[in-house]
């Protein structure tokens, strides 16, 4: 356990939350922070904001992320691996990791819009229901991330675009990174599907990177798709590659390695592929990803 941990186990977190909730804010204030970019300028970030959108499945396991303590175990194992720079998550998960001492000297990104619940009729009206620029700045985090799915046939998209633009401006006002994760999306048999063709990803990049009054603090979070050289030619924004839902890990690692060589790519921001590998060896999966980034 870290010397900075306020809680030794998960039951202690519940005790602290009920008996001294103000300790959370004090812990954020006292945490050892770090700049987003240092050393070789590359980043290896672990993502864990899926549960707050009701997305609990991993591959063929529909309830893989049901257990919060199991997820925290996996996150702590990942964050303990040398070369892992930090984490992206919602406030509930970040607060738990903070109290367990797992966020010292780590890059931390908050997750903003979780209103587009997976499978809902309003999924593409993805309003800001998570962190805010003010809360992200108060906790001395490095920035915030927004999912920006664009369906030209769904009126809810314009609410999402407007919310993301406002968040870009608010984060920039605090000098914090606004990380946009764009997709061209549509409903197929009632379910939202992201178009992962190169031209669709390129269009999503152009739409999303124009959001807000300034792009000074804008970063992109993009999927690895065919013809990534064409995709990355669409932007000068620093970009982290996302992992998505795991299929073939060896294929994913090979695709990441190739895309990481492109000039605008600065690293990986991966969740389920590393946290829930088929053999459940989180440390090994994370170490492999780190070796690609470094």
From TrEMBL:
Coiled coil: none annotated. Residues 41-290 form the Cgl0159-like domain. This is Cgl0159-like domain-containing protein. InterPro entries: Aldolase_TIM (IPR013785), Cgl0159_dom (IPR054574). It comes from the Bacteria.
């Amino acid at each position: 356990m870290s010397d900075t941990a306020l809680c030794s186990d998960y039951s202690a977190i519940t005790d602290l939350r009920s008996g001294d909730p103000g300790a959370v804010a004090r812990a954020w204030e006292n945490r050892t922070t770090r700049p987003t970019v240092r050393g070789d300028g590359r980043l290896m970030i672990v993502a864990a904001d899926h549960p707050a959108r009701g997305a609990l499945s991993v591959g063929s396991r529909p309830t893989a992320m049901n257990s919060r303590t199991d997820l925290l175990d996996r996150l702590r194992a990942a964050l303990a691996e040398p070369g892992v720079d930090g984490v992206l998550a919602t406030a509930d998960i970040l607060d738990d990791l903070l109290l367990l001492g797992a966020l010292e000297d780590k890059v931390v990104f908050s997750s903003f819009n979780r209103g587009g619940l997976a499978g809902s009729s309003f999924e593409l009206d993805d309003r800001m229901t998570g962190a805010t620029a003010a809360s992200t700045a108060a906790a001395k985090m490095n920035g915030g991330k927004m999912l920006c799915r664009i369906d030209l046939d769904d009126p809810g998209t314009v609410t999402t675009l407007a919310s993301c633009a406002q968040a870009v401006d608010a984060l920039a006002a605090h000098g914090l990174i606004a990380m946009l994760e764009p997709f061209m999306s549509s409903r197929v048999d009632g379910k939202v599907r992201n178009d992962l063709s190169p031209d669709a990803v390129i269009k999503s990049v152009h739409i999303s990177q124009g959001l807000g009054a300034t792009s000074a603090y804008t970063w992109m979070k993009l999927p690895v798709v065919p013809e990534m050289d064409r995709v990355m030619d669409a932007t000068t924004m620093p970009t982290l590659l996302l992992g998505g839902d795991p299929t073939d890990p060896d294929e994913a690692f090979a695709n990441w390695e190739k895309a990481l060589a492109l000039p605008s790519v600065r690293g990986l921001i991966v969740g389920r592929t590393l946290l829930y590998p088929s053999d459940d060896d989180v440390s090994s999966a994370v170490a492999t990803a780190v070796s690609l980034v470094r």
